[in-house]
Amino acid sequence: MAEKKAGPAKAAKAPAKGASALQQKLGKLGLHSRNDLLLHFPLRYEDETAVVPVNEAPWDEPVQVEVRVTDVSIQFRPRRQLVARCEDDSGELWLRFLNFYGSQVKQLETARDEGRKLRVFGEIRGGFFGSEMVHPRYKSVEEGSALPQSLTPVYPTTAGLAQSALRKLIGKALAESDLADTLDEAQLQALDLEPFAASARLLHAPPPGVDEFALQNHRHPAWRRIKFDELLAQQLSLRRAYLARREKGAPRLDAPGALARQLLAQLSFQLTGAQQRVWQEIARDLAEAHPMQRLLQGDVGSGKTIVAALAACQAIECGWQAAFMAPTEILAEQHYKKLSAWLEPLGITVAWLSGSLKSAKKKAAQQEAAAGAQLVVGTHALIQADVDFLRLGLAIVDEQHRFGVAQRLELRKKGKAGIPHQLMMSATPIPRTLAMSYYADLDVSVIDELPPGRTPIRTKLVSDARRDEVVGAVRHAVESGRQAYWVCPLIEESEKLDLQAAIDTHAILAEELEGLSVGLVHGRLKPDEKAATMAAFAAGEIQVLVATTVIEVGVDVPNASLMVIEHAERFGLAQLHQLRGRVGRGAHESACVLLYATPLSQTGRARLKIIYENTDGFEIARQDLQLRGPGEFVGARQSGVPLLRYADLEMDADLVELARDLAERLLRDDPPRAERHLRRWLGSREELLKA
Q1: Are 281 and 296 within 8 A, CB to CB?
Q2: Is residue 672 part of a domain?
Q3: Does the keyword Mitochondrion apply (predicted)?
Q4: 200, 110: one domain
């Protein structure tokens, strides 16, 4: 059912070339259609339904007064400003304007000369002459003019688009739009939801007596309906993408499992119950004739790589290739070495491809991939235009949130003989509500059990005033036969400054830890230098490794039992948890020292408290979501996912579940109703998720 388009806002992604100035401003807000205006709900409300006497008005709170103007002047000290002295029967109020037009002077003088009243809205504060409002909103009114009958909405806007103009456009959209409900009466009752039309009207123009607290805090039943509808649109879009992908063909990788059994037989450890469970889930997916799109989550050290290796074995046994892509060279190379050690004894060819390889080696690796090398491990180099695979059946992406949607899609496009299955892995746990909403188009497997023998890591919070004690603890650990990491601070996302901090820290520690071998690794080192340093640390030749966050994931040195993170307050919680996971990999008692600078901000204190009190990555992620919201968790994936403007994943977790269940039923039993709902909320902007 096509939606009728509003006059000033045509349905388009961006304003057309010849669009009016108003259309361009609306376009900046994503308002391209009448429905977009209808669903552009207020940020907050102002109460202009009552007038308060000047002497009874509270200070520093938005308030409306009605006054007469007794004097108007332009003053020049301390700076040029327009000042109007006003009064009502209870007292005097000064209005002050630091930026003003000649027309404003004239308006105020006319009000004074004609004895007209001003209705003024703003916050009263103490000023040089007494009670004053600075830059209030005002209008001239007749004696006894009626007050508004609803709260005044304040909308998200952009420069040059006044609230008054936006209110007028939204009011018109509200009057002219089709507000027919996309849910039937039985669904509304079952879900305890208000009708859509009543909810939209109430939020745009709240009547007198409405519960203002519930309205401002998004807890009113009208807000509940809007938030549910938004979540339902997101679920419908994602599930529809999921179903569309299941209609596409992919190679059936239903191997007998001989290679996987050989791999398991030669391992020096047993799979945990959780690893066995997720491996079975992946094996079942690979045997289907549609592309697997599975996210494998597991905390730091839970053993995701061996599960990926088993998946690769299944593809290889069926005569297909597997590709394994990781975001950094250190991590990719570590995977290459581990996978080679496991798979080459089984007669599997494993190729290595990274951007830093010399031209001849790179060309040789590309030729291996094109000729059918069974497993190709590498960095972003795998998705370059000159890389081809003979029969790519499985694409594995590690630390998937570090890649954009487009990059993951490029790897899948390498499957010339059909769409390959895709396994994405993440050691950054995704909270359940986030997984249910933003990842509803994926199947999710979770390894929720650590292998036996992992020693608990003690976390210590230490002020940088006690840095000398920490240096002493590092020396003591090394003298006891252990090794240590010292991670340098993150400096305002500047790689150049991060590098300098690492170089300076290395120089200082080399002096303070005289007699010990102190190494340095950072992102700007040449790959062979980086590899040599990491190999020396793994072999115990380097006792203390000073590093930037290049060691965040994948580095596995069981003898390292101490991690020091300098300026820990500058790191995100996921990063701190990842870094902490680099120790505790052997049988020795391990510790992670979070060095912080004082004074700590409130947010910094809250973050460090979470990491100090929790070792479970999922609980850390849940609390992190409360602190930061979903944006950073979702990351580059956002480019394909309808983002949430009104629903709050923590506060509205119950709605996420209800929306997910209803989306499944609508797509199965009532596709036209699902289509109407999607058209209202996403219009022409719905994108099928491809990666």
Answers
A1: no
A2: yes
A3: no
A4: no
484 pLDDT band (50/70/90 cuts)?
Answer: very high
In order of 235, 314, 336, 425, the CA distances from 291 in angstroms are 20, 15, 25, 16
The stretch 590-609 carries a mean pLDDT of 91
The CATH number covering residue 96 comes to: 2.40.50.140
In this structure, are 490 and 605 located in the same domain? yes
Using an 8 Å Cβ cutoff, are 329 and 379 in contact?
yes
Q: Which of 187, 602, 633 is nearest to 432 (CA)?
A: 633
Give residue-wise pLDDT tens across range 263-282: 999 998 899 999 999 999 99
Comparing CA positions, the residue from 456, 462, 480 lying closest to residue 590 is: 456
- Name the strand (E) or helix (H) holding 426: strand 421-426
Q: What's the rounded Cα separation, in Å, for the pair 175 and 410? A: 46
Q: Give the 3-state secondary structure of 365-382.
A: HHHHHHHCCCEEEECHHH
Residue 454 and residue 462: Cα distance in Å, rounded? Answer: 24
* Residue 153 is assigned to a structural domain of this protein: no
Residue 683 vs residues 4, 402, 647, 677, 679: alpha-carbon distances, Å? 11, 30, 19, 9, 4
**495 in Cβ contact with 488 (< 8 Å):** no
Q: Which tokens is 365 given?
A: 């690796």
Give dist(CA 592, CA 583) in Å, integer. Answer: 8
Shared-domain flag, residues 241 and 272: no
For the record, the structure tokens of 640 come out as 């394909």
Same domain as 658, residue 572: no
Examine the pLDDT at 500 and tell me if it is beyond 90: no
pTM beyond 0.90: the answer is no
Q: What distance in Å separates the CA atoms of residue 386 and residue 375, rounded to the nearest whole number?
A: 18
**Does any domain span residue 25?**
no
User: Residue 82 is part of which domain span?
Assistant: 50-147
Please say whether the dihedral angle defined by the alpha carbons of residues 101, 102, 103 and 105, taken in this order, is positive or negative. Answer: positive
